[in-house]
Amino acid sequence: MSAEVRELVRTYLPEFPIQYCKSLVTDTTQFMSIDYGHVIELGDVHYMVYKNEAERRFGLEDPKYWVKRCHELETGKRKILKLEFFETFPVQVGKFRVECYRSPDKESRILDIVRGDSRFMQGITIKDAAGRNVRVLEIVNGRRLDLTVDRIDVEHDVYFREHLPGLLRRYLEAVRAIGMLHRHGERHGDIRRDHLYVEHGTGNLCWIDFDYTFHSYEHPFGLDLFGLGNILVFLVGKANITVQSLEGMGLAERLEGRLSSDDLSIVIPNRIVNLRKIYPYVPEALNRVLMHFSNSAEVFYTTTDELLADLEPCVEALESEYGRKPE
């Protein structure tokens, strides 16, 4: 146990069990060895580590050992520290192969661009004693978009009339936020429904996690656009509806022989994009927007402005028919 850590804890966090205090960390290179009870020193500020963050997908937790949930000792605030970590992997989108990689410096650039913009998570970058990039992030006071939608316990037709118009109105602003990044020459890089939070109190949407980026010279913002499409399909369907899930929904018999590969996502092969075949009350204009992300699409959206130009009239039509309700 470090005497320096013990003294810091006694001063700033006296309720912390002293027996769990570990050493003071100034070089975060070996992030796998930094865990509960360590204190990370960045400049003149100290962060008590509580746990590693984890991504929760498909009912499983995937630990992110380079992301630490912390207590900022001098202020008492909760913070997230993202430590320097690199990885590279390919993504196949239809016939396009995209090289993705993690870039801490790119996330730092975006944090600078979006400072003060509530549509994005907020944070600063501090170098540790070894010159490693550490992003000190504010915790978003909200809930993931997908979990928020899951908690709307009504049938799809009621959801479509009473909840979807408000959600789509907020989604439009989230798309505009990504467009702002693109105008700065940056990409979000990892657009998913669990990287978009619904802020408590306001209901506004807030993007998190900007450290992925990708090389795609033919479609420089394509992966972001496909990510936006995946979220849109999820919102309209109130779920990700797959060929396999139709039976559980009681729709397999009705749709037998009516679905083809043209109705499926170009990104996720078993996901149904042609939602009008499942829910006939989905307007044709809105369904045409969804079909830009299907295997049958001959033209893809290449900018957020193109997506907004098609989608905004659809949202206005829903609001006109069902009323504009706060969500």
UniProtKB/TrEMBL annotation:
InterPro entries: Kinase-like_dom_sf
Name by which UniProt lists this protein: Serine/threonine protein kinase
Organism: Desulfovibrio subterraneus
